[in-house]
Design goal:
Elements (H helix, E strand, L loop, with lengths): L7 H13 L28 H52 L3 E5 L9 H5 L7 H7 L5 E6 L13 E2 L4 E2 L4 E3 L2 H4 L5 E8 L4 E8 L6 E3 L9 E3 L2 E4 L11 E11 L17 E4 L4 H4 L2 E5 L6 E5 L3
Antiparallel strand pairs: 1-2, 1-10, 2-3, 2-4, 5-11, 6-7, 8-9, 11-12, 11-13, 13-14
C-alpha cells in the first residue's frame, strides 16, 4: 500500500522501468523516468555515420567491379538482337517468295554505292536527296527486301517493287566488309567450334553476287538502277544460288567522312573507315546467318563453349 507521502508518478515510472528490463536482454529498451516517462519510449540503437560510409563504400566497390561485365553483356545483347532481326527477315523473304510465286531478293547496301549507279554519277545533285544521304550513313549495315514481280503481272513483263523499307542493323553491328570486297568465286573458310561436343565446322563464305540491277533507292526510282549485292529466293522457296549462303556479322563502328560545310556524308572514292571491336572478331568469334539453299531456312552458326 502506498504511503501518504508517496508520489503516484514516481510509482508509475518505477513500474515502467521494471517492465522494460524484463524478458530477453536483447529486447530491452531504456525508458526514461520522471514526469515525462508516461507514454514515451525511445530506442537506444542506431547507425553511426562511419557505418553508413562503410556500407556506401562497399556498394561502390561492387558496382565498379561489375561495370565491365555489364558492358560486355550489353554488346552481346546488341549482337543477339541483330541476329534475331536477320533470321526473321530471311524467313519473311522466303515466305513472300512462296506466297507471291515470285523471286524475292534481300539486297544489301555496299560501301560507295554511288559507284555502281551511273545515274548518280552523272547527276551529283541527286546525292543530296534525303533518302540517299540517310543511306550513306548506313553503308555496310542497311538492307531491304525486293520482289521481282507483282501479282497480276503479264508474262515477260514485271513490276519490281520494294517489299520493305530500308532496314538498319542495331548500332554497333554491321555486315562484314569481306562480303562486299571479296572477288566473285573466291571462298574464305570460317570455322566455328562447339566445345561441349568437341566438334569444329568450317563454312565457305563468299561475297554477295552483284549481277542484277534493282531500282534504287525505292520502288518509285523507275529511271534509277543500282547493282546491289543480294541473296535471291525462288518462287519455290529455295536459294537461286544452288549453294548455301552466309551473312557474316561483325561488331564495331563505321566512320563515314562528313562534309565540313553541310555535315552530310561526303561522297568520296574511298570506302568508310571500319573499326572492328575487338579486332578480328568476325573470324575469331564469328556470327554467321547460315541459309540452307534447298529449304532457304536460316540458322545461326557461332562458337559454343
Amino acid at each position: 500500500m502506498n504511503s501518504p507521502n508517496s508520489n503516484p508518478s514516481h510509482d508509475i515510472s518505477a513500474w515502467l522501468a521494471h517492465e522494460a528490463f524484463r524478458g530477453d536482454p536483447d529486447d530491452r529498451q531504456v525508458v526514461p523516468t520522471g514526469s515525462n516517462a508516461v507514454g514515451t519510449r525511445c530506442c537506444a540503437s542506431a547507425f553511426t555515420i562511419l557505418e553508413l560510409m562503410l556500407v556506401v563504400g562497399i556498394i561502390g566497390l561492387m558496382a565498379a567491379m561489375a561495370l565491365p561485365h555489364l558492358s560486355g553483356f550489353t554488346k552481346a545483347n546488341v549482337m543477339s538482337a541483330a541476329t534475331r532481326q536477320l533470321l526473321d527477315d530471311v524467313g519473311l523473304a522466303r515466305q513472300r517468295a512462296l506466297a507471291n510465286r515470285s523471286m524475292v531478293c534481300m539486297v544489301f547496301l555496299p560501301p560507295n554505292f554511288w559507284n555502281n549507279d551511273t545515274t548518280l554519277n552523272n547527276n551529283p545533285s541527286m546525292l543530296m536527296n534525303t533518302q540517299i544521304t540517310n543511306l550513306a550513313r548506313h553503308q555496310y549495315s542497311a538492307y531491304a527486301l525486293i520482289s521481282m514481280r507483282t501479282v497480276g503481272d503479264q508474262p515477260g513483263k514485271s513490276n519490281v517493287h520494294y517489299l520493305t523499307d530500308w532496314k538498319y542493323l542495331p548500332q554497333g553491328v554491321y555486315f562484314a566488309p569481306y562480303l562486299f570486297t571479296n572477288s566473285q568465286g573466291f571462298t574464305n573458310w570460317i570455322s566455328t567450334t562447339n566445345t561441349t561436343i568437341g566438334l569444329s565446322n568450317g563454312w565457305p563464305i563468299s561475297a554477295f553476287p552483284t549481277n542484277i540491277q534493282f531500282p534504287f533507292p525505292s520502288t518509285y526510282a523507275s529511271n534509277n538502277y543500282n547493282y546491289l549485292p543480294y541473296i535471291a529466293f525462288t518462287p519455290g522457296g529455295q536459294l537461286i544460288s544452288g549453294v548455301d549462303q552466309f551473312i557474316m556479322l561483325s561488331s564495331g563502328s563505321i566512320f563515314c567522312p562528313l562534309d565540313p560545310n553541310t555535315g552530310l556524308p561526303q561522297i568520296s572514292s574511298s570506302p568508310p573507315n571500319v573499326v572492328e571491336t575487338p579486332p578480328g572478331n568476325a573470324t575469331n568469334n564469328p556470327n554467321l546467318i547460315h541459309i540452307d539453299w534447298l529449304t532457304a531456312r536460316a540458322r545461326i552458326e557461332r562458337n559454343q563453349f
